[in-house]
């Protein structure tokens, strides 16, 4: 039963219409405020994403992708921080709304999202993510009078890495290649062989690296990437 806030107009149909109109208006303002203040999700540590992806995939193959918004600094400078945030939120909405339900998605830095697709190959992931990227880049975001696009790198376990963690590292490398090759594209990881010259490295170190590679079932390149990650972490204040 409708209860009027004022007893003198309890039976007034015009008052009821006014209240209903007011309710519609309040709802409209609420929706508009949610849209104008839309925020992307909170950033989580990459290691948390890896744990979630590993748990979701289990023993199945899994494709991992890492995306990065192209030209975000220029968008921020030209159209303002709020517009840049809307751009990020629009990409997240497009990404999460277009992926299979089993996908694991996480924002892992300001403009980077990581995706895990359990049961998918790198090639099938490329088809899905290229379709999503193309859709996003073909639609403008309110307040941004410029085209937005993303670069995406993909790797899979197997064949590119034996673990989700290493597949994620490989996806980041693929992302960097996508940036170098012109941005606005999706690329699959291709391992670049690291040439270890004996005049640069002691023979004993090369032998130990080879033994470690055999013992762990990992490539020399993946072991060296891990060593570089540790080195950068150790000296992160200088970077």
Shape descriptor reads globular
Order of strands, main sheet, comes to 2-3-1-4-5
Low-confidence stretches: 1-20, 22-37, 194-198
Question: The CATH topology of the largest domain is what?
Answer: Alpha-Beta Plaits
**Biggest sheet features:** 5 strands, mixed
Q: What is the name of the CATH class of the largest domain? A: Alpha Beta
Amount of helix: 40-55%
Proportion of beta-strand residues = 5-15%
- Span between termini: 66 Å
The structural domain count equals 3
Number of strands: 5
Mean pLDDT equals 81
Q: So how many helices?
A: 8
Instruction: Output the helix-strand order.
Output: HHEHHEEHEHEHH
Structure classification: alpha+beta
The Cα radius of gyration reads 25 Å
CATH architecture designation of the largest domain: 2-Layer Sandwich
Classified in CATH, the superfamily of the largest domain is Reverse transcriptase/Diguanylate cyclase domain
């Amino acid at each position: 039963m409708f209860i009027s806030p004022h007893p003198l107009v309890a039976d007034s149909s015009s008052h009821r219409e006014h209240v209903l109109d007011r309710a519609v208006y309040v709802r409209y303002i609420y929706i508009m405020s949610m849209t104008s203040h839309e925020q992307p999700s909170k950033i989580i540590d990459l290691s948390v994403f890896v744990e979630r992806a590993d748990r979701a995939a289990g023993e199945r193959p899994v494709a991992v992708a890492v995306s990065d918004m192209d030209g975000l600094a220029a968008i921020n400078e030209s159209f303002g921080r709020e517009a840049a945030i809307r751009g990020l939120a629009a990409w997240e909405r497009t990404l999460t709304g277009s992926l299979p339900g089993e996908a694991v998605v996480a924002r892992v830095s300001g403009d980077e999202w990581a995706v895990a697709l359990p049961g998918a190959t790198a090639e099938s992931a490329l088809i899905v993510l290229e379709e999503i990227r193309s859709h996003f880049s073909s639609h403008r975001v309110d307040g941004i009078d410029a085209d937005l696009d993303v670069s995406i790198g993909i790797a899979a376990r197997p064949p590119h890495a034996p673990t989700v963690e290493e597949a994620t590292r490989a996806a980041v490398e693929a992302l960097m290649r996508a940036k170098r090759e012109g941005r606005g594209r999706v690329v699959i990881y291709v391992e670049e062989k690291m040439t270890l010259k004996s005049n640069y490295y002691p023979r004993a170190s090369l032998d130990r690296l080879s033994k470690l590679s055999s013992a762990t079932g990992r490539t020399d390149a993946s072991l060296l990437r891990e060593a570089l990650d540790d080195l950068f972490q150790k000296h992160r204040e200088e970077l």
